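Progress report, Aim 2. The chain analyzed during this reporting quarter is listed below.
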Amino acid sequence: MGMVSIGPFAIPNGVFAGLLAFLSFTVLVSIAARRMDKKFDAWSTVALIVGLVVARLVYVALNWATFSSDPLRTFMFWQGGLEWRSGVMAAVACSFFMFRAWRTRGMAVAILGASVLVWLAAGVALNDTKEGMPLPDVTLIDAKGTQVELRQYAFGPVVVNLWATWCSPCRRELPAMAALAAQNPNLPFLFINQAEDPIAVQAFLKQQSLTLEHVLSDARSEVALALGTVGIPITLFFYDDALVDMHAGEISPEMLKRKTEALLNH
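Predicted structure tokens for the chain:
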């Protein structure tokens, strides 16, 4: 759930949908370059770069409240965050700038439209969020070695994050999660560590100067098995014992804030 597993690799569904769209774009451009105009090769590179840059900059501008404290995050494309409509418009503008014939302009716009449709359709087809799933009935261990029944959080809103210290995306998203958890003391953030020694986990958090209230150890990855998730990090949003949303892969501060606010307003 949330990721496409290819051998040892787990790719977030959204990223995989983007890869399918890029593959479609590449194939269509190759056909147009052979049959219509060789300039399609150069156009594809320019349109892709301009479209991505514009989409990212517009997204950053719209979410400047979270980017202002760390502007370098603008270049962290792997966190996601594109205002795709503005990117498509910029790519269409490139088509009109680089081509003079309306026939080739029309083909360029058609290629862009087809690629966007592949991306949107793949996103819908790969959306395997099992909404309504309850919190698993498992027993975990907290930082003090005390057994904790996960079901005790089955009432009201709760955010569950599956993570590990060796996972780079997990480490990058933890500070933002810790800050948001501190701002919402009535909303439990459960940081469920996957199959690591609890002592090593606490040593890591101390080294990173991270204060997390609910750190739980899942030695056998029972939560992931019960929910059917693949890969980490995975962030799940529950309300009254029902899964209402999830995010696979590294979650950006603005996306985390948006999903958390939606959870609280559920």
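The mean pLDDT is 92. The first strand starts at residue 3 and ends at 6. These observations will guide the mutagenesis work planned for the next reporting period.
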